[in-house]
Specification:
The complex is a heterodimer of chains A (349) and B (366). Chain A has 349 residues and is of the alpha/beta class. Chain A has 2 domains: 194 residues, Rossmann fold (3-Layer(aba) Sandwich), CATH 3.40.50.300; 113 residues, Zinc Finger, Delta Prime, domain 3, CATH 1.20.272. Helix content of chain A is 46%, strand content 7%. Chain A has a 5-stranded parallel beta sheet, sandwiched between helices. Chain A is globular. Classes of the chains: A alpha/beta (349), B alpha+beta (366). At the A-B interface, α3 and α4 of A face loops of B.
């Protein structure tokens, strides 16, 4: 897949292609935006475009010493098939050469992806990155490192990375991917060129999901994904919503807490906030149109009947605050009871 | 792919690549080697992404093809087999191996997953005698850094000038070894390339068996050494090597000439009682005599002395014994010269005859 085929992130893609066209690549990028909207995928495809031998852009990062050679004197011999319709004026990856194929199978020697293990990126990983960057490229033009969920770097790792981010070895591009860039140390953020990604418009989201989810559920899944198709592709949103309703029912019947992990809590609160939003829409418009859970309009109506808009907004505000506190290891059953009492009081169940 | 190969041939070629095919790695394909069987000639290739090795192999090719075979397992299997082996690839996923009544089926990977052998088109070529190359590596590699965060130090600098002088430098920031030798060929302009330490030691092992000249092909990102039929390629380290000329002391006026072997043995003896991590020893110079001592509060003390040629004032310095021993063992002359100035200024050590090999070591504060 080429950069141009990334759906719904035209602004980010244009910036990256522009950098390639001008041969002015930054040495480190920070891709930020909500999760599930294609940051990592764009990063991988950017790396492919940088290294695809069918492209003819010159790269802006110069060696320390000027070289008498042209920038790309070592195209891999077997993969140098000139791209007949290089399409986007020969900037984008061709998708068919060996270099591009190796990115798909994850075996490109000049590409490294680091992700958190046990919710942390440790200093050992960063040292490994630094070591691999210290060599010249193996077969591609530039070495590309992607650090996924970069905000998970522990302080030691982040500090160890500063020097490399500021002065990376020649022919290297570092891409930090983060859905919560505000958690990164300011010293890291200020060293990277920031590329913003935004949730997809529902039309674009629909195009991404088309053919990948059952047709009859496409509408509802598109709405439930809230512009984050990655979520819909990695989980069954409908089953997730059924689970949410089951737990909500249990909560209103004063049952015991049923979350099994912190991720569960987070996802459940997300769904509850969406549901509160639907109830508000229903209270204001009085109709089932414009609901995200459109197929469950009856349920929304039933629960919204006993609520004032003011009450819903109050719950919404309290729960948004609660959600922001999740990373501080909230106690599961205390959180459950608090949420339950909040809902039961306002709904007067 | 379908081939027949003798056990001895395959075993010999596989033993060459065992150090290069990685055992612990994130990319599974790197623990494999690529067998490229062609009617015009067959090769096996192994790489750990820092270095790569390609060697021809004599096999009878019945059907051409390529496949990635796990290097370690294949080596273990071949070692235990007898006679000729016939191998056949199945769907690029399996290798059927048959020798006499023994049958193996080995899980393999498709050839296209293997890293491409980097092309080197615009290149320059020089030739170095096998013994010279061995020498320059052996005499510098001990001084180079190991997993230093100043990553340029984790390699050897090969500095080539247009008049075909080669200077090889290794340093870890505390000591430095530098050797000058001549090479043949032509190069367009001065070159400074940094060869990773691991590649240098691996290369030294390969040359061991060779007598002839070694062709060295210099590219922008790689260097290729052709040792007989074997192609050994290494990726270069990126960055600028520290200016080594700057740290070689020139005004050291105190000159000590010592018997290398006796001095080395004495240092080794005394070092036994030095502190474990620092290896610190104390060297007391007086006219025509040098005494070395060490002490460790937990263990005790040691002292030894030897007659030398020295005509200056008395002087005391501290050294890391390991650094001195490394240098003395890398040198071959009967007598070596130490040039010093002050207790904390760098010391230059060189052989009495060969002015082309110099070592610098920083004294310790004692």
């Amino acid at each position: 897949m080429a950069l141009r085929e990334v759906i719904g992130q035209e602004r980010a893609v244009d910036m990256l292609l522009g950098a390639l066209r001008k041969g002015r690549l930054a040495s480190s990028y920070l891709f930020c935006g909500e999760s599930g909207i294609g940051k990592k995928m764009t990063a991988v495809n950017f790396a492919r475009a940088i290294n695809c031998p069918a492209t003819d852009h010159r790269h802006g990062i110069q060696d320390d010493e000027p070289s008498i050679f042209p920038a790309d004197i070592f195209p891999s011999p077997e993969s140098a098939s000139p791209n007949a319709d290089a399409g986007i004026s020969g900037l984008d990856a061709c998708d068919s050469c060996e270099s591009c194929i190796k990115f798909v199978s994850g075996t490109h020697p000049d590409f490294l992806m680091v992700s958190p293990e046990e919710r942390q990126i440790r200093i050992e990983e960063i040292r490994m990155v630094e070591e691999s960057l210290s060599f010249k490229p193996f077969e591609g033009r530039m070495k590309v490192v992607v650090v996924d969920d970069a905000e998970m770097m522990n302080p030691a790792a982040a500090n160890a990375f500063l020097k490399t981010l500021e002065e990376p070895p020649a022919a290297s591009v570092i891409i930090l991917v983060s859905s919560r860039p505000e958690l990164l140390p300011a010293t890291i953020r200020s060293r990277c060129s920031r590329i913003l990604f935004s949730p997809l418009p529902s039309e674009a989201c629909r195009r991404v999901l088309e053919g990948k989810v059952p047709d009859q559920a496409l509408d509802i899944i598109t709405r439930l994904s809230m512009g984050r198709p990655g979520l819909a592709l990695s989980a069954d949103l409908i089953a997730e919503r059924d689970w949410f309703f089951e737990l909500l029912g249990g909560m209103l019947r004063a049952e015991k807490d049923a979350w099994s992990s912190r991720d569960d809590m987070e996802r459940w609160l997300d769904l509850l906030l969406i549901f509160l939003r639907d109830m508000t829409v229903f209270r204001v418009t009085g109709s089932g149109k414009g609901l995200i859970n459109g197929d469950l309009a009856d349920e929304v109506k039933r629960l919204a009947q006993s609520l004032e808009v003011k009450g819903i907004i109050y719950i919404y505000r309290e729960l948004s605050f609660l959600k922001g506190m999740l990373m501080f290891n909230l106690n599961k059953s205390v959180t459950w009871n608090y949420t339950a009492s909040l809902l039961r009081k306002e709904m007067a169940v | 792919m379908k081939i027949v190969v003798s056990k001895e041939e395959l075993l010999a070629k596989l033993s060459n690549i065992q150090n290069i095919a990685e055992k612990r790695n994130t990319m599974p394909v790197l623990s494999h080697f690529l067998l490229d069987a062609g009617k015009q000639g067959s090769y096996i290739i192994a790489t750990d992404l820092d270095t790569a090795l390609k060697e021809p192999i004599q096999i009878k090719v019945e059907k051409e093809g390529k496949i990635c075979i796990p290097a370690r397992k294949m080596f273990e299997i071949v070692r235990e087999l007898e006679g000729d082996l016939s191998c056949e690839a199945v769907d690029e996923q399996w290798l059927k191996l048959k020798a006499g009544a023994s049958n193996f089926r080995i899980a393999c990977l498709p050839a296209k997953e293997f890293p491409a052998w980097p092309g080197m088109e615009d290149k320059e070529e020089i030739a170095i005698g096998a013994q010279v190359l061995t020498e320059v590596i052996e005499k510098t590699v001990y001084a180079s850094g190991e997993s230093d965060t100043r990553y340029t130090l984790n390699g050897l600098l090969f500095h080539l000038t247009t008049d075909l002088k080669l200077t090889v430098v290794g340093t870890d920031g505390h000591r430095l070894a530098i050797i000058d030798r001549d090479v043949e060929g032509t190069i367009r302009d001065e070159k400074k390339i940094i060869i990773p330490r691991k590649a240098a030691t691996e290369l030294r092992k390969l040359i061991d068996k060779s007598e002839e000249k070694i062709r060295v092909t210099l590219g922008r990102n790689h260097v290729l050494f052709t040792v007989g039929e074997i192609h050994f390629l290494t990726r270069l380290i990126e960055g600028t090597y520290p200016n080594y000329e700057q740290v070689i002391p020139s005004g050291n006026d105190k000159r000590v000439v010592v018997q290398r072997d006796a001095f080395n043995k004495m240092t080794r003896r005394v070092a036994i009682m030095s502190r474990e991590r620092s290896n610190a020893i104390k060297m007391d110079l007086s006219p025509d005599l040098v005494a070395i001592s060490s002490s460790n509060p937990d263990l005790g003390e040691a002292k030894d002395e030897i007659g030398v040629d020295y005509k200056g004032d008395a002087l005391s310095l501290g050294f890391n014994a390991r650094y001195l021993i490394d240098i003395l063992e890398a040198m071959s002359a009967e007598r070596v010269i130490m040039e010093l100035q002050a207790p904390l200024s760098p010391v230059l050590i060189r052989e009495e005859q060969d002015g082309g090999y110099r070592c610098v070591v920083m004294p310790m504060r004692i």
